[in-house]
Amino acid sequence: MEFKEVIGSRRSIRYYQPWRPVEREKIQTILQSARLASRAVNADWAKAIVVYRDDLAEDDREALKTATTTAQLDLAPVWIFWFADLNSPSEGHETLRELFDVGALTPGQGWSYAYIEDVVYPQVLGPIANHEVALAAFGGCEAGLAICQALLAAVDEGLGTQLTAFTPAKAKEVLGFPDHWFPLWVQLVGYPAESPDAGGQRPRKPLEQIYCEGKFGNAFDPDPAVDDALKAAGMIQESNGQEWRAAEVRGLARMFGLPE
What we know:
By secondary structure, this protein is α+β, with helices and mostly antiparallel strands.
């Protein structure tokens, strides 16, 4: 699938074929896509634990659910639990040096080993690492970049996927992750039982209502010709659903024994 179409075709899929396993190579592709995402100081902010639904006891699966995560956990065969590693700033000493060594950070822009140790770490990484709220926000943002690529990779592999919440305390009990891993999302992965377009692209406000140019209050004025090209490429798709979507949802409810 072309890149723009991957972006346009991403949906939060909530109905999966529970009987159909996901090939391990596709899970590896998803994880590799996350590993190669942009990341501050080249540190491994995003951590993940891949869990196969059928390896979990039914009581544990139920306890992991929240008010917004119900039947989709029962249906998706693969769950990828994502975390922000709050110890990542401590990697900066080494990972920034690695970027300098390969020429990603250059002397021409002021970088050196001394600059990393005497300026960047005490003035940037240190304050973040020592501020609980800033660290959680920064870590969530950095891990989110990787998670976004994981979602798009799943779509490109022909899979359905969704980010959803889970119960952190139960996940800690079941998965045993360390205290410095901050729980974020569980990414559900499987082959969709619903139509892959799942009722059309989700409604969004017009671009000019949410983005500015130059300064706050100056709306970014989109070029209609560009939007037409993006529609042709599959990035911008219909968002008003299909006339048969309601019937599909009723049929899925009956198939899986869910409320209509």
